[in-house]
Amino acid sequence: MGKRFWVGGYSPDGGGTSLGIRAIEISRGLLTDLGLAHAADSPSWLATHPKLPVLYAALEHRGEIAAYRIMDKDKLESLGKPVAAGPMVCHLAVAGAGTVLIASCYGDGRVLAYPINADGSLAKPTIAPASTDPFASPGHHPRASRAHQGTALRSGKIVTTDLGHDSLRMWDLVGGELRLHRQVALRKGDGPRHLVEHPSGLIYVVTEHSAQVIALAVNAAGEWQEVSRDSLGDGILAGEHFPAEISLDRHTNKLYVGVRGARAISVLELKGGRPVVLGAVPCAGEWPRHHLQVGNSLLVANQLSNTIEVLGLGPEDGLPLKHLNSLALDSPTCIVAQMPS
After folding, report:
1. Name one Pfam family in it (predicted).
2. 262-304: pLDDT as tens digits
3. Helix (H, G, I), strand (E, B), or coil: what is residue 76?
4. What is the DSSP string of 87-128?
5. 172-200: per-residue pLDDT in tens?
6. SS3 call for 62
7. Are 185 and 134 in contact (CB under 8 A)?
8. By the 8 A CB rule, do 55 and 44 touch?
């Protein structure tokens, strides 16, 4: 038996051709399309519950979140009606040991916390305090807040990125609500998109606008500070290429970053915690919006070339140089394992 995944994508309301959430399987490096699991409008981001057979989807251009009961390897059933979120809800993360769903909205910067009921359905959310632009100044036009990702850290805190305000916000999850602990400003114009936490406690943030990876650590005073800032390769240029997903290798010694516009996956080795570029490797498609490591392979969702690609990782350097398989799939934007790891 192979490993199975749910795939979200953009439908016509988001400029794509996807019909909804699909199920796929990989076995011995070969991908199989298991069919349409449930029709949906631009389910651009997906998240599974860690304990319940429930899948959540951000219906980005409807500004709603849908919950589905997992019926089989290739079938989903609606778990109630979609619930309201905010404009361009683009990311979901289950936190609090499965008790809360965190939603990030690119359209207005809104971050919401939905209590999760016993059956996996969503209760009425609380809205976190709005972001304050750390670079705001009198006489200048205010910049829009653009929430893009929420992540549960090992400490139990939640961190959210704000691509528009060039900052991260750390939150305490108290009674299912988000309470602001600290805001961490990066540099103006960075555009932090997604991040990943290393077992060492370091956080690696990929920036969409400056096209870099920033490492953050907690100093002796308990404050988060930038400890390194590195490019994604000589050919990756800010303003021309747009980093998307960042992930940590299963051996925790490398980072993989999909770079839209460059048709590439950048690979960075962690040396003393600092990312050092090993290379930017072709992703066998166009607009690598998301990727996921599966054993010694990398699955890449190439949104604009309408494929999921399987790239074999080198046993020594981890570079995804071997093209193993390709599966035609409309406008894929997110891949999530059916069984949480």
Report:
1. Lactonase
2. 999 999 999 999 999 999 999 999 999 999 999 999 999 999 9
3. strand
4. TTEEEEEEEGGGTEEEEEETTT--EEEEEBPTTS-B---EEP
5. 999 999 999 999 999 999 999 999 999 99
6. helix
7. yes
8. no
Pair 257, 265: CB distance under 8 Å: yes
Residue pointed to by tokens 């979901």: 92
What whole-number distance in Å separates Cα of residue 277 and Cα of residue 341? 28
Cβ-count burial of 276 within 10 angstroms (0-12 exposed, 13-18 middle, 19+ buried)?
middle
CA nearest to 41, candidates 67, 25, 69, 60: 60
How many C-alpha atoms does 111 have within 13 Å on its Cβ side?
A: 29
How far is it, in rounded angstroms, from Cα 18 to Cα 43? 9
DSSP category for residue 321: -
How far apart (Å, rounded) are the C-alpha atoms in residues 266 and 269?
Answer: 10
Q: Is 8 helix (H, G, I), strand (E, B) or coil?
A: strand
Q: What is the pLDDT of residue 340?
A: 60
Average pLDDT along the chain: 96
Report in angstroms the alpha-carbon separations of 234 from 191, 212, 266, 288: 20, 11, 11, 18
DSSP letter assigned to residue 200: T
List of long-range contacts for 210-215, beta carbons under 8 Å, 24+ apart: 210/238, 211/236, 211/237, 211/238, 211/239, 211/241, 211/242, 211/243, 211/259, 212/238, 213/246, 213/255, 213/257, 213/268, 213/275, 214/186, 214/190, 215/273, 215/274, 215/275
List C-alpha distances in Å: 164 to 8, 183, 239, 245.
25, 14, 15, 17
Span between the terminal Cα atoms of the chain, in Å = 17
DSSP classification of residue 313:
P
The two tokens of residue 313 are 């990782």
| DSSP β-ladder status, 264-271 and 254-260 | antiparallel
Provide the token pair at 20: 């909804």
